[in-house]
Amino acid sequence: MSELFATTGTIAAIATAVVPQQGSVGIVRVSGSQAMTIAQSLFHAPGRQVWESHRILYGYIRHPQTQQIVDEALLLIMKAPRSYTREDIVEFHCHGGIMAVQQVLQLCLENGSRLAQPGEFTLRAFLNGRLDLTQAEGIADLVGAKSPQAAQSALAGLQGKLAHPIRQLRANCLDILAEIEARIDFEEDLPPLDDKAIVSEIDKIAAEITRLLETKDQGELLRTGLKVAIVGRPNVGKSSLLNAWSRSDRAIVTDLPGTTRDVVESQLVVGGIPVQVLDTAGIRETTDQVEKIGVERSRRAANAADLVLLTIDASAGWTEGDEEIYETVQHRPLILVINKIDLVEESKRTTLQSKIPNRSTERSRSPKSTIVTAAAQNQGIDALETAILEIVQSGKVQAADMDLAINQRQAAALTQAKMSLEQVQATIVQELPLDFWTIDLRGAIQALGEITGEEVTESVLERIFSKFCIGK
Known about the structure:
The chain is α/β, with parallel strands linked by helices.
């Protein structure tokens, strides 16, 4: 049995970030049968304050032997089963920073608790029936959400919007299994199975599984975000584009080509999707060893990006250098950004765009679009964001239902369930005995149960909860 599953005893952990000289409040959480005993030995509540569930007490945390005051604090009491873990929980709300919470945690460990494992509070909530596995994963997603939409999707999972359809699908499979097994056990007493009705019901279940699977890519986008690389020749305005887009001066901007020598990152949110923007060094042949390293990193960043913004100088038009860069990135999803349009006379802009080759060639399946910007004047950013969202949607990563966005583990289980159902249908078509029908149907039931945790192994739980922070 791994340490993660040693869920006996009372556990304690710091439940808030510990940052020197920052944070006004630090929380130490304690859960288990000794939680109240530990609280009563450490916390002094002056006056006639009542120690009862779901009340907050004011007082002092003191060393039980020396009676030295460690901190002035609040104590939150939540008695089982009305708590996050369905065990007795107490929380010491201390002053923020490092020393206070660390000292309080140490006192808890010295007086009957042990340090919690990563995710152990949530694991206990799951094992005690407070949460199912999709809700537990929703909590982790909510903590790590990088945008309002990602938080909303995580809340949907926490509220059971994924668990409900999964349980319904599993119940439908169980009903079919019961029908089949009844015919196996009482064949002479029941009418024959309607094969067509069974196949039709399985088709409906498989269709719903397919719909849920279509939310995987959107879920990945909401959780991990989109990596966008700005590439192009030196001095085409890549750094100005990053600064205008991020509304900051992250990148150094000068008239000298080759100013950017390394990849500069900025975190943005576009249409609810987290975006990591990489401003890369200008790509060109050079004898400067430092610049060579920057150019090589630019090429690697472009090849690793989900989307490339190939930026050109409007005043220079489409050059041989632009063509060479395009050849190296044309296999990636791509937006052509014609920058410095403010340096071109109004009467010549239409002519300029007509002279730039259409990059949507048949040799590349990547979606393409062209926009014009004047980054130094903060112009064209809205059009850029619109183009990015159109690229995202055209790439089959837009979920049909934003409330539901499954993760990789859930997608793998759903895929297994679908494959098992397809095998059941093949078994029916081949007119094999009913016993063969039940084998793959049980496989589908087990795969669906793994999603919510009704059928789950220790290794799966360990993989999920080990990614949590210790205080959660």
